[in-house]
Write a structure and sequence with these properties.
With about 190 residues, the protein is mostly helical. It folds into two domains: about 1-90, Rna Polymerase Sigma Factor, Chain: A (Orthogonal Bundle); about 100-185, Arc Repressor Mutant, subunit A (Orthogonal Bundle), CATH 1.10.10. Helices cover about 75% and strands about 0% of the residues. It is built from nine helices and no strands. Helix 7 packs across helix 8. The longest helix is centred in the first third of the chain and has 23 residues, at about 15-35. It is elongated. The termini are far apart.
Length: about 190
Amino acid sequence: MTRDLVERARKGDHDAFAELARAAIPRLDATAWLMLRDADRATDAVQNALVRAWRDLPTLRDPDRFDAWLHRLTVNACIDEIRRVRRRRLEVDVTDVSDLPSTADATSAIADRDQLERGFSRLEPDERAVIVLHLYLDLPLPEVAATLRIPLGTTKSRLYRGLREMRAALDADARPGADIREGRPA
């Protein structure tokens, strides 16, 4: 059925493309949010990917690869968004914790999540894409490689580098005095 919808959409059928997009949006939103950690930017990235998909759909060679192609467009839109924001240097992360319970466990969980977020935000967009697709979305590495159109070895090295960078960031935050150097009270 998907192949038929893709073929119809390639010929300009708006309804067929709308049906394909409607089915894919939840997965694309999840991917974009995991990469960008911002709902508005994630929505923009998904919209950009869908616009590009509609525009470039006639050039898709294999209709059976539509989902992987759409995922790749979304990841690329997220990478573009990350680079755009880094150029502007306006990244501000404010977490609303007003509705969370004020127990020690909740505080510890928030601190752990914040530490992971800081480490994740330090990753290069290419490393971030591999980690999101493999560890968060549970895609096997060969499928990640196919989705990103990179060799399997490159996928593995990006995963390794990304995880190494995350560990280094977590270790740096865990060292005594890290809070003071970053301007946070101990």
